[in-house]
Design goal:
The complex is a heterodimer. By secondary structure, chain A is mainly α. Chain A has one domain. Helices cover about 65% and strands about 0% of the residues of chain A. Chain A is built from 16 helices and no strands. The two termini of chain A are about 25 Å apart. Chain B is α/β, with parallel strands linked by helices. Chain B folds into 5 domains: about 200 residues, 2-Layer Sandwich (Phosphorylase Kinase, domain 1); about 110 residues, Rossmann fold, CATH 3.40.50.740; about 150 residues, Dimethylsulfoxide Reductase, domain 2, CATH 3.40.228; about 140 residues, Barwin-like endoglucanases (Beta Barrel), CATH 2.40.40; about 240 residues, Alpha-Beta Plaits. Chain B has 29 helices and 43 strands. Chain B has a 7-stranded mixed sheet, sandwiched between helices. In chain B, strands 28-20-25-22-24-23-29 form a 7-stranded mixed sheet. Chain B has a 5-stranded parallel sheet with strand order 12-9-10-11-43. In chain B, a hairpin with a 6-residue loop joins strand 33 and strand 34. The chains are: A mainly alpha, B alpha/beta. The interface between A and B is large, with 55 and 60 residues.
Chain lengths: ~450, ~950
């Protein structure tokens, strides 16, 4: 193929695929038996999940005291993990909804996997607010529902109640959006499947898709509408999560900068997680032609942009604390940078501000191994960002007599590991049972030009 | 003639069919005036017995066919009694509900304690419901019946009756005239038998010194309320010295800026370690333990000559007859010098009362030393031990083992009881009849408020049986009192039971004119290390080492729980490379170090009262889970016993030991401390505020917070409950902490949970240091839920489990709480406590102490101070029943009730005449973290600081 003269005309999908090849390539991982690599990955992930399940079972049976929390530090790993996973969940909707509306056609190769990642991340995130409760069996009390206890209503002033709405809404919309996007591909798989249970299942879920022009027309209308609906959620969910902190009185939490700061951080971490997964998946599933270096590079650029926003937020926080003249506020930030958790703070700054600067270099951006390592470090950094915000603000607040430290217990670590186990288990299963790449959409961006999607 | 039962056995086998209320032991002889007597005595026994509350699980419950007179289910009945947790003899009001005592409160009318009650006294109620209290006599460690024990002991005694000097009766200080008489009667049956009293926390030297200078071996009564200058040489009179409740009441009365006629008492403390008393001093002089006696001598010289050189002598001489010099020295010569100073200053008869002396310490160390020597030499054939534990708390106490017959009257199997041949367990004070004369002229009464929970027998009854004249304790006590008040005895007795004490005619003063003492040998300072042994306000001499509340009570200064430790000065620790938690070896004892600001450089201080056998029971204290760490130390006990490091010298028990070098062992032992940070930060946070007397004189009344943009959420049209805490009065003694724990069913969480900073106390006392670590200033701040009007906790709870009441209370709804802990995170005061585990215990007996008005919280819910809402409700219901408004002072929170210093005032802010409303307008009032506009309902009164600071002596 001739070297294109402009990025705009450079093909998004390499290898000069035709439509049948696309279908074949994407469906291949679903239709062959899993390889050894998959099994190793799956068993590892499942083992981690099992450890997490054991830890959570033990915790619920014994009491939340098996975590390292105390009277001063009431949240630590639990809410850190929650915010971390919610943040991871942001990239999917951003890619599928906002980039769709912005006509970023490169998104077609990654949106399916990114959306799946979003769902799994939101599932992981949703577990934590439930298990972090002292009495998780009563978690349903935070939803308003008709009851005979008065009726007893919930506190609509509480950000935790808002969280419950925000996250459940986000999950429902994301799941719907993902599922609607899946329908044409499910029909493709249905059509390729031999008669039997597998075919029946796909038949059921493809909702009688017939590939007609009318079906496509309606599908695209629904997809566009859902994209429009999902877009504000990208901003709202993490804004509301940030209100958990911003509406409080605790220095280090009580900050108006939190909503944009959290949203930027969420996109940052989400993109990094997409990169981590995609770099592995393209190799493992032989999808190098679909998820190209160009995709990786584009996402790396998004990472560096959001890294800049996060860095600005870090700086602004310090400025505000100093400028406020509030001694508690000043202390909290000094304590972050130089207190007992300074190591966590500097891991955060190093991973979120320092390391991504390497992506300014094109050679780094296009070097897959380097991007992979950077994306991992960004994820580490973003986990620590939440840890720093939560723990360093709480552990030394107003009255020095209350100051304590915090050290996670084995149970908390196992729970964190378990959440990764859940995430990867889900993702690995997803790779096996559903088309990882949106075939229907990729076909629309093949380099030979636009054709009606009758082959889908 | 009726038959009165003396033990459960006897009751069961005989006497059941007699009388209208056969179980009622209050019947007076010959049934005379029975109804009147019942009324006056408050039906304590009737309530206990007839309301059907028994220790055993009730097989079948039957309602009372006839309502017992004066008993209403659900209403508390209070009985006056006397505290026996230490010999200070504070007045008690025992709160009983449905026949079981659930709380001890101070008796406000009691002339000694004046309404306060210390942490130990408050906690002593748990001893009543102690599962491991002995329930029957033991012979050689095996349970026997009282008959068997009596017969066996009498058989052994019969052979000793004619043997001279073979029988010794060893007790702690006995303040009860009846018990002292009974022991005397019993010993009459033996030749040259002796009753020996000693105090593990001895003040023997003070008594000896008065023997020398005034010819009477007594402890004078110190009247702090009359003093304008107080100079204390190492006497921790606010903490654990002799009678802290009495002294704290007097001290705070002399230093209250609102109430005391100026000048406020000025207090100097000369000490080597940081004591509670030193933390309140206007001037604190840090001196090595071996220098302190020299400083007394120097002061005596200055006073004698009338030419003051230092501030102390100058102030003392300016306040003749209004000053008070104290010393905790165990050197009789030094104490004699103190007497001389006080004599020259004209303090005898003014601030020091020798005409009506104190009986709170009567021990004689010389006698105790002789006894141990005799025991060691095998001269003693029989030793009776009551209210004392010599094997544990006396150096060389092991000699008791050599006595062929040791009879202990211990309530629990302590060290002495464990080696005793017979244990004849005494009753808990709340099951007993008795009396106590803590100071001359004031005799308190002890009355039983519950049916005995085991087959125990009171000491006086046991002695009466052995003396051949068995009688119930009630009768013995009444007999003794009748001798004192033969006229109109029944009315007097009723009145006494109601008041809890009687003012008796004090004994005629026996003190002769002052005789100048011999000048003491000048101790040369050796410039080496010294070990100081001291009691803590919570553990005292260790007699309450069975009590988990007291183990979990943070030490008021170091904030360490569940352990004792060796404290070192910061400089010394730095030189030796020792940090907090390093195990060090001092005089053969290995224990963890704590770095204590304000301690003398060459001093190691170790608390007494720990490492007791009684603490072995705490193996299972606290929740069990995979990462839980043990509560017990490597020795299988809580802490380490330092008492063997004391020594007898010149006839007194010395708590200072020279020439002990602390050595680092390289091991570590993590202490459970409730507070890790001890300064107010830099820049200093305005959490503790201070005011000088001059500023206070011109201070404007404190105003209300600024007007707000929005109309108030809560109009507070009825009551509006509020509290003030006087930081100037608060000594940090922690009585309120235990009072709150008892009142509000706060669980004990165990050492590991405290280590993880999960203590459950609703009321805590924050202690802050300021200034240089060698000589810091100290401030104590009781901290608890501030009941904010704009409460951070209320807005963030997703399920409305914490809401504001229309009376200004921040209410926690346990049933609704799901345990997100968001409220605790958003509490600026971190006053909320979370049930990380199921802390409540399935201990049927111990759970009888639970307050039925307060819910026991399950795991996973948040809790916090409620302003004792149950007491508010009780007062409101009572007022409604009587058709009137709640009066100021009718609602007393538990912390307020117990506070010996009167630092806490609670009331209705909407009543402008209430005390709390007046104090809220005081120029000293401020609110903690007012700037975040949480609008707390708690006002703090600033510390009145007279800068004088400290220096090294």
């Amino acid at each position: 193929m001739a070297e294109p003269c402009s990025v705009l005309t450079r093909p998004l999908i390499e290898g000069g695929k035709n439509l049948a090849q696309v279908t074949g390539d994407v469906c291949a991982p679903m239709e062959r038996r899993p390889g050894a690599l998959w099994w190793v990955a799956f068993l590892t992930a499942f083992g981690m999940l099992a450890a997490g399940v054991a830890a959570v079972t033990y915790q619920i049976a014994t009491g939340i005291g098996v975590w390292g929390l105390n009277n001063t530090v009431g949240w630590a790993f639990d809410i850190t993990n929650f915010v971390f996973w919610i943040g991871i969940g942001h990239a999917g909707t951003l890619i599928s909804a906002i980039l769709f509306l912005l006509r970023q056609r490169w998104r077609t190769s990654v949106n399916r996997a990114a959306e799946a990642m979003t769902l799994f991340a939101v599932i992981c995130a949703g577990i934590f607010p439930v298990i972090h409760m002292g009495r998780p069996w009563l978690a349903y009390w935070i939803f308003p529902y008709p009851n005979f206890r008065g009726p007893l209503w919930i506190n609509f002033r509480s950000p935790l109640a808002w969280d419950a709405f925000a996250i459940s809404t986000y999950f429902i919309i994301s799941a719907t959006f993902w599922y609607v996007g899946l329908i044409p591909d499910l029909a493709t798989v249905r059509d390729r499947a031999r008669p039997g249970l597998r075919r029946k299942i796909f038949e059921f879920f493809s909702l009688g898709w017939d590939g007609s022009c009318r079906t496509w027309h309606r599908y695209e209308k629904v997809y566009l509408l859902l994209a429009g609906l999902a877009t504000p959620l990208v901003v709202s969910v993490h804004t509301i999560v940030s209100w958990d902190f911003a509406t409080s009185v605790i220095p280090g939490w009580h900050a108006t900068i939190f909503p944009p700061y959290f949203v930027a951080g969420a996109i940052f971490s989400g993109m990094a997680m997409v990169l981590t997964l995609m770099i592995v998946a393209r190799k493992a599933a032989h999808l190098e032609d679909y998820i190209t270096v160009r995709h990786i590079e584009t996402m790396a650029k998004l990472v560096i942009a959001t890294s800049g926003m996060v860095a600005l937020a870090y700086g602004t926080e310090f400025f505000t604390a100093q400028y406020s003249g509030n001694l508690y506020e000043r202390f909290v930030f000094l304590n972050r940078a130089a207190g007992p958790f300074a190591w966590a703070y500097w891991i955060m700054v190093g991973c979120n501000v320092g390391v991504p600067q390497l992506l300014w270099f094109r050679r780094v951006r296009t070097h897959l191994a380097a991007v992979f390592v950077i994306s991992l470090l960004v994820n580490v950094g973003m986990w620590f960002e939440r840890f720093v915000i939560i723990v360093t603000s709480l552990h030394r607040d107003f009255l020095p007599a209350n100051w304590t430290s915090y050290r996670p217990t084995s149970i908390e670590i196992a729970t964190l590991v378990g959440s990764f186990g859940l995430f990867f288990t889900c993702f690995l299963v997803f790779c096996r049972v559903l088309p990882m790449i949106a075939m229907g959409e990729v076909k629309s961006v093949l380099s030979y030009g636009h054709k009606p999607k009758e082959e889908a | 003639m009726q038959h009165y039962w003396k033990s459960l056995e006897e009751r069961e086998h005989g006497a059941l069919a007699e009388g209208e209320f056969p179980e009622n032991p209050l019947q007076t002889p010959a049934g005379r005036n029975r109804r009147g007597f019942l009324k006056a005595a408050g039906f304590s026994f009737a309530s206990a017995v007839l309301a059907g509350c028994r220790r055993a699980p009730v097989g079948k419950a039957a309602p009372n066919l006839v309502q017992p007179e004066g008993i209403l289910p659900g209403r508390a009945v209070y009985y006056a009694s006397t505290c026996t947790a230490c010999p200070a003899g504070c007045g008690l009001l025992v709160k009983t509900r449905d026949g079981r005592p659930i709380k001890l409160e101070g008796n406000p009318e009691h002339p000694v304690s004046r309404g306060g009650l210390c942490a130990v006294g408050q906690a002593s109620i748990l001893g009543l419901y102690d599962r491991l209290r002995l329930k029957q006599p033991l012979a050689g460690g095996k349970a026997v019946t009282w008959d068997e024990a009596d017969r066996a002991i009498l058989a052994r005694l019969d052979s000793l009756r004619s043997l001279p000097g073979a029988v010794r009766f060893l007790t702690g200080t006995i303040t009860s005239p009846t018990v002292a008489w009974a022991i005397g009667q019993f010993l009459k049956g033996f030749r040259e038998a002796q009753h020996i009293q000693y105090d593990a926390l001895s003040s023997s030297a003070i008594l000896d010194a008065h023997q020398r200078t005034h010819g009477v071996r007594v402890l004078p009564r110190y009247r702090f309320e009359k003093a304008e200058v107080i100079v204390s040489f190492d006497a921790d009179f606010l903490g654990a010295w002799i009678s802290p409740v009495e002294f704290t009441a007097g001290y705070s009365a002399a230093r209250n800026p609102e109430l005391t006629t100026p000048p406020l008492a000025w207090h100097a403390q000369i000490e080597s370690r940081m004591s509670l008393t030193g933390s309140k001093a206007d001037r604190r002089i840090i001196a090595a333990p071996d220098e302190i006696d020299g400083l007394v001598a120097r002061l005596a010289g200055e006073i004698e000559s009338g030419r003051p050189e230092g501030e102390l002598a100058r102030r003392l001489l300016a306040a003749r007859g209004r000053s008070l010099v104290l010393s905790a020295s165990q050197d009789p010569a030094t104490q004699a010098l103190v007497n001389q100073i006080n004599h020259r200053l004209g303090n005898y008869g003014a601030t020091i009362d020798l005409d009506q002396p104190s009986y709170q310490r009567r021990g004689n160390d010389r006698d105790a030393e002789n006894l141990l020597r005799e025991a060691d030499a095998g001269k003693i054939a029989a030793l009776f031990v009551a209210g004392a534990n010599p094997v544990y708390d006396l150096p060389g106490g092991e000699a008791v083992r050599k006595v062929p017959l040791v009879v202990s009257f211990a309530e629990r199997l302590d060290e002495t009881a464990a080696i005793a041949h017979y244990v004849c367990p005494d009753r808990h004070a709340l099951e007993s009849w008795g009396d106590a004369e803590p100071v001359s002229g004031v005799t308190g009464i002890l009355q039983p408020v519950i049916q005995p929970l085991g087959g125990t027998r009171q000491l006086v009854e046991t002695l009466a049986v052995w003396a051949g004249a068995p009688r119930p304790a009630c009768e013995i006590v009444r007999e003794r009192w009748r001798e004192q008040h033969p006229d109109d005895f029944e009315n007097f007795w009723e009145a006494t039971l109601e008041r809890g004490f009687a003012a008796r005619e004090p004994k005629q003063p026996q003190a002769r004119a002052f005789v100048s003492p011999q000048p003491p040998r000048q101790n040369t300072s050796q410039a080496g290390w010294s070990l100081v042994l001291y009691p803590t306000p919570g553990m005292l001499d260790g007699r309450h080492a069975y009590n988990p509340w007291l183990h979990e009570l943070p030490d008021p200064i170091t904030k360490v729980t569940w352990d004792n430790y060796a404290s070192l000065a910061p400089g010394a620790a730095g030189k030796l490379g020792i940090t907090d938690g390093d195990v060090i070896r001092v005089a053969g004892l290995e224990l963890p170090a704590v770095i204590q600001p304000g301690q003398h450089e060459r001093t190691v201080a170790v608390a007494l009262g720990y490492g007791s056998r009684l603490s072995e029971r705490f193996a299972q204290a606290g929740p069990e889970w995979i990462e839980a760490l043990p509560t017990l130390g490597p020795n299988g006990r809580i802490g380490w016993n330092a008492a063997p490091l004391a020594r007898f010298e010149n006839g007194s028990l010395r708590y200072v030991r020279a020439g002990v070098e602390p050595v680092k062992t390289g091991r570590r032992w993590e202490l459970a401390r409730t507070q890790d940070h001890h300064s107010l930060g830099s820049p200093r946070r305005p959490i503790i505020q201070e005011i000088s007397p001059e500023e206070f004189a011109t201070a404007r009344p404190a105003g209300d917070p600024r007007e707000e943009l929005w109309p108030p959420d809560h109009p507070f049209t009825g009551h509006r409950w509020a509290m003030t805490v006087d930081l100037n009065a608060c000594t940090g003694c922690s009585a309120c902490v235990i009072a709150c724990q008892v009142e509000n069913n706060t669980p004990v969480v165990g050492k590991d949970e405290v280590r993880r900073k999960r203590e459950m106390h609703w009321m805590r006392i924050d202690r802050y240091y300021s200034g240089p670590p060698e000589a810091p200033e100290v401030a104590h701040q009781p901290m608890f839920c501030q009941q904010c009007e704009h409460a951070g906790c209320e807005t963030v709870c997703p399920v409305l489990a914490t809401v504001h009441s229309e009376e200004g209370l921040n209410q926690q709804v346990y049933n609704r709480c799901v345990g997100t802990r968001y409220c605790a995170n958003n509490c600026a005061y971190k006053a909320r406590r979370f049930n990380w585990f199921e802390y409540a215990r399935q201990d049927r007996l111990a759970n009888l102490v639970l307050n039925p008005d307060v819910t026991v919280r399950s795991r996973g819910v948040m809790e916090k101070c409620t302003f004792c809402v149950q007491r508010i409700q009780e007062a409101k219901m009572e007022a409604r029943r009587l058709g009137r408004a709640v009066r100021d002072g009718e609602v007393q929170t538990a912390c307020q009730q117990s506070c010996p210093a009167g630092a806490i005032v609670f009331g209705d802010l909407n009543d402008p005449k209430s005390r709390v409303a007046q104090l809220m307008r005081s120029g000293r009032r401020y609110r903690v973290l007012e700037e975040i506009n949480s609008r707390p309902s708690v006002g703090y009164l600033k510390v009145v600081r007279r800068r004088g600071g400290q220096r090294h002596g």
